[in-house]
Amino acid sequence: MLLLPLLAFLFASLLVAAAALALAPSGAATIERRLGEATGARVRQPSDEPGYDRVILDALKKFGSVAPQSPKEMGKLQRKLVTAGFRAHEAVAVFFGIRLACALLAFALTASPILFHPNLPLALGACALGYLLPSMALGRLAKRRQHRIRLGLPDALDLLVVSVEAGLGLDQAIQRVGEELAFAHPDLSEELRLINFELRAGKGRVDALRNLAERTGVDDVISLVAMLVQTDKFGTSVAQSLRVHSDTVRTKRRQRAEEAAAKTGVKMVFPLVFCIFPAIWVVTIGPAAIKFVQILFPMAQK
Predict the structure, then answer these.
(1) Nearest-CA neighbor of 105 among 63, 163, 61?
(2) Which stretch of DSSP H or E encloses residue 19?
(3) In 3D, which of 72, 127, 61 has the Cα closest to residue 96?
């Protein structure tokens, strides 16, 4: 009986210790403060530091750095984070910190008598669920971002065709389209601007386009990159190839919409059967059933 309270106390103590370690000032800040006191220079005040968001991110980063990490899992997680739009170097450590914090918090809440009666299987299940929920949320964010990029690709292709036919080169057209789509499709605009930054840094166009396909993971973007690479390799007309590919992408977009509309009838079966039909049956058959019972029961008793 004492096992669960002891485990809950242990995990709570570890969580508090990790939070205190993460929120503690770093050695560089301490050295800076002491040098300022010794030299009389102005010491950076806490108000000069970034806000609470930065403090929380640093705490999660330090907390996640102690988690065991395998290179294979790190590679998959890094790709998923990039697909979801998190490209910072500290994103992996922050994600590990979030996952460990959720698992420990779920175990501490269910193993202590704060919410429920202490139960070891329930606590272990809550710990596993808290460990898996951040991965599920990250996958959901990545899919939503891929969907937004997929929806904005036909508009980007139309603008690319207009820009190339107006006399701009492919690099300048990509830069122009990235600027024009900043409001309507910010995710796709950000990816196109990254291509422009890589080209300015000296990377080849083929490598920059392949990096775009690897970052997004969208099938339409992968086919577009393959088409542009082949066009650049064989020297064919970029404008004509983009126009043909734009028509193909719009056709696929219309086919996806028709497919989603065809699935609507099947998806509506479950809400109709479990939510709407019972209410209709109560409204239509209920009065007749009540009248039937009122008439037949006295006759049966006689």
Answers:
(1) 63
(2) helix 3-23
(3) 61
Per-residue pLDDT tens digits for 10-23: 555 655 555 554 44
pLDDT recorded at residue 188: 92
**Calpha distance 94→286 (Å, rounded):** 57
Quote the tokens at residue 291: 């009248």
Of the CA atoms within 13 Å of residue 234, those in its CB half-sphere come to 9
Record the pTM.
0.71
Distance CA 93, CA 59 (A): 10
pLDDT in tens, 69-91: 666 667 788 888 888 888 877 88
Report the chain's C-alpha Rg in angstroms: 29
Structure tokens, 180:
């024009």
Question: Count H helices, E strands: the chain?
Answer: 13, 0
Distance CA 173, CA 154 (A): 15
CB 130 within 8 A of CB 120: no
